[in-house]
Specification:
- It is a single chain.
- The chain is α/β, with parallel strands linked by helices.
- It is 38% helix and 18% strand.
- The longest helix has 20 residues.
Length: 394
Amino acid sequence: MTYQELKAEEEQYVMQTYGRFPIALDHGKGSALWDVSGKRYIDLTSGIGVNCLGYDHPVLTKAITEQIHTLMHVSNLFTTAPMVQTAKTLVSATGMGKVFFANSGAESNEGAIKIARKYAFDKYGMGRHKIVTLWNSFHGRTITTLKATGQTRFHDFFFPFTEGFDYARAGDLDDLKSKVDDSTCAIMMELIQGEGGVLPQDPTFVKAVEALCREKDLLLIIDEVQTGIGRTGSLFCFQQYDIQPDIVTMAKGLGGGVPIGAVMAAKSCCDTLTPGTHATTFGGSPTVCAAANAVLSVVNDPAFLREVREKGAYLKQKLLEFHSPLIKGVRGSGLMLGIIVPDGQHSALAQKLIAHGVLVLTAGQNAIRLLPPLTITYQELDEALALMQPVFCS
């Protein structure tokens, strides 16, 4: 089918909840994608950070294919080896306690919220339930995680929202302390606010937040849905901040393209959820965990993570060497970068870049967000840069 034919049927049969780019994608290889008309693109989005191994990666496709032929899905009332192995790898790599598997980032954050509130209830009783998040954060699109998100534009239409959240300014410890009271059970934050504009947190602030949590017996929840699984050049971004969270959430890149999320809790609170207090039908299924194990076998390697950091530094340097008045800076870590452009111009520039053959994302009010596959080659980076240069420099 042509793009026009597909688009007409999409508009007829699919709820129009996305502002989709005018492209219908057909297939991919490495970090390249082709649309239905045969046009080739260099993908600097990886499905919003999901396809961390790119497209048609042999390790990932082999693992999924073999698992489908063995055992695709069983109930969580039974144990399976892929689930246990994924949890073991994550715990061993981080020093955390145990893992609960979900299907998405929002569900992972819901699980984190439930752990924090039950931990406080078990220890202190009723009344200690508030979670403080940061302004400009994004934690998901369920009713609860929308309320946890510190952007008022998400707090419309779906009333009443789940209560029990407050928001502090990122980097402002005094403001954060003013929001913490006897009803607070946790502080929840992204170390790089992705949807908010690719905004890294100041390390001094993050360490101070950790100290505040220890002082007040609050759980420190780190949302690594976008930053986790090698995206910033370490398996998890928190490992670059010299902190030890109580709860870490993840999704996106963990499955390399299949839907999986996870909540990882420290030994001090990993037994908070007991039988009957939390569950999911599809979480931790053999197929998605086989994919996660394949991803981790590639990504959880110091040499691979070093290459992510090096490629990110290379991409940032080359973008700055454009010396374009449209590029006000490049921020982020590893292969999670934001090109800072004049306010309000990010969407138009993204459209131009896509028309030139480079798929990009936007974030915040002034950022073009780059989340390429972690396996992207220098040749593919150079090809993308050559296609981007006329957009920024013409």
